[in-house]
């Protein structure tokens, strides 16, 4: 059961008819804009707040509430985060139409009364939603395993999974997805921020700022452990490590000095057991740590001896305020057998490299930018360390070598097709240019074959795109098995493949293409799918023409094969 923080927003319905306000100076209205109405009220008394300023975040569009606390504002696309502020109140924001602001001098008793009433009748539930389409397969597997056995380490949950990291090395940054209407981290906005900045954002959002410092410290340790676990597992989402539905971790609206003190006091500290991080979360739930684990009601509603829900705030506050217990005691009693460990020991360079490789997806621009940023950071590290004692020279040389290895891995990933694992078009063009240069210098030749899966569109239309992808993977696998020596194959585009066969005569290449064509036609596919046939366009390059002209000839030969009825090899 999630306890809303002091800066939280209470959402209520709004029924007054809207009166459109135009865009602010310097902004243009769009057909997709929509008028939204709402009300700003006091979170304690529920009285309307007159004269409050309301703004659409990231724009110049503003409105002022009337004597009934109501406002109307033009929102781009009809969806946006509204921000409100009024003298004597803490600023607030929401993606819905009505905001409740907390008085700046709210007492802890008043806050608890409001929050307790709001939580009545709500069932505790796991924050991880397995229906989220953006979860990576590994994240889904980890979440399911953690639900079955909360509080264990990843190595205990999935012992067959290869370990990509040392036990306690913390990452420097975390990719935070600002979740929006698109519900897709690869299409939404993702910010790369320091891990400690993420923790600074979580603690004041999830923990009431007036709480005991030891409670806030426990929260900082849990939040840091949660984020670090997802970073070191390659990310919870396809293009991000964690999400930020409340915008608290990226924006600094909720931050305060007491929470910052708690984060600084626990710098580098995480929840560990047997030398490895435990899967801690940081949700606000009613619970109480005891000598034997968490007492009823349980944080996760499932396990007594260590669970996956982290530092439950009401329990930590009671033990800090009434019993004088420290945050270390709380960690040890929430996770029997566990404790606080330091994750800022000097990381081994090879561990840093593997952490970066685990997060690199060269098919996405954002991931490439992260890799470039990591490389730039490594360069800065090298420049700083050159001023150190001579004993560090061997370490510097090793880091430089590993940077070269990382760049080589990235270059290989950038030239590889993600679906078929063959070369992609870019990688094949680079190879063809190298072979063409060698042909001019050494008077050698090579053959080029462009192959196209016949009637591929009908396969997609009849069986779906996932089945079409399975066909492409099967064809690519068969082409790969046929390669020898310097030969190569690539996914040229869509359902087209290109093979390059150096140093074989054109007649021999034609025989080989026909053998491949027959083998592919006889290849079994998934149940219900027909066999596929392949058309080939085959040419020889001897250096007497530009490389582009050779590829055009191969393409025309392929189209000629299609015109003649498909499932054949045409030589040009």
Chain-wise SSE layout:
Elements: E1 34-42, E2 53-56, E3 62-64, E4 70-75, E5 82-85, E6 92-94, E7 99-101, H1 108-119, H2 137-148, H3 154-157, E8 173-178, E9 189-194, H4 195-206, H5 213-232, E10 242-243, H6 257-265, E11 269-273, E12 276-277, E13 288-290, E14 293-295, H7 313-323, H8 327-334, E15 339-342, H9 349-359, H10 365-385, H11 393-414, H12 425-442, E16 446-453, H13 456-463, H14 465-481, E17 488-493, E18 496-502, H15 506-521, E19 534-541, H16 547-563, E20 569-571
Helix pairs in contact: 4-5, 5-6, 5-7, 5-8, 9-11, 10-11, 13-14
Could you characterize the architecture of this molecule?
- The structure is a single chain.
- The protein contains 16 helices and 20 strands.
- Residues 1-22, 118-127, 161-167, 283-311 and 346-367 have low confidence and may be disordered.
- The strands form 6 sheets. It has a 5-stranded mixed β-sheet with strand order 17-18-16-19-20, sandwiched between helices.
- The radius of gyration is 30 Å and the shape is elongated.
- The longest helix has 22 residues, at 393-414.
- It folds into 4 domains: 34-119, Carboxypeptidase-like, regulatory domain (Immunoglobulin-like, Sandwich); 137-342, no CATH class; 349-414; 425-571, Alpha-Beta Plaits (2-Layer Sandwich).
- It is α+β, with helices and mostly antiparallel strands.
- The chain has helices at 108-119, 137-148, 154-157, 195-206, 213-232, 257-265, 313-323, 327-334, 349-359, 365-385, 393-414, 425-442, 456-463, 465-481, 506-521, 547-563, and strands spanning 34-42, 53-56, 62-64, 70-75, 82-85, 92-94, 99-101, 173-178, 189-194, 242-243, 269-273, 276-277, 288-290, 293-295, 339-342, 446-453, 488-493, 496-502, 534-541, 569-571.
